[in-house]
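haha ok so turns out i had the wrong file open the whole time. this is the CORRECT one, sorry everyone. sequence first:
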Amino acid sequence: MLLHAVPMLASLDEEASVQFYTEMLGFTFHSGWDGYLIFSRNGVFIHLWPTKDPEHPKANGCYIM
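then structure:
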């Protein structure tokens, strides 16, 4: 039985991603290293991985309800 899943999404800009997920979406920023970022809100975690390819963010996403 699966109980949890953690989406891993691409990020082009570390600073802009932290600002968007914390200020706009209300997530808490937990940690980051080498551009890899971890956020949570109400028990939901999201991880962002760094990329320089602008096509990567277009090809991934998730629904959180």
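The longest strand covers residues 44-50.
again sry for the mixup
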